[in-house]
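Researcher: Next entry in the queue.
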Amino acid sequence: YRYLGVNAEHEPLPNMGERFYAVYYDIDDFMKEKKKTTEILDNVPAGLSIFVKKDKRAALLYANSQFYLVHHVSSKSWKEHHEDPFSFVLPSDLPALQEKINGLRHEEGCDENIVYRVTGDDGSPHWMNSRVRFGFFNGSSPAFFVSSLCIDKQVQAEKRKELDAQMYENATKDSRLIVW
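Model: Structure for this entry, 180 residues:
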């Protein structure tokens, strides 16, 4: 089997009916390269996506399979419930996230690191760290490349470290130890 593209045109003919023209072209190599690229992107250990920003709203243009995994949602759930990508962000994190996104400049090399929480399909909040970079204009709307990671384990480790430091401080204070 081969992939073929077709460009068809229609011409009405007076008193004779219609005429159709079709030009077929081979797009097999293009489709094979596209499949290879998709396989590569799906194996990157981060959620990769492209969002388009229009009228202070965002729309998902592309997402690799890891995007859904790191955000703790299925692609089906995303399509059914998250037409607005901000709908899964915790309400308390939404104003800061929108402020950062609205402040993104539409220039090459402009990027922003954004930390926020989302509600996964399991109903639990999950910490996300996304690196957002301006990519290109999709018509008149800016499009951004996004690389996302779930940082739940990092946040838990930082909280444990803070708790350990507080326990140490309390123990030295209660014992009246002098530590230098």
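Model: The chain has five helices and seven strands.
Researcher: Noted, moving on.
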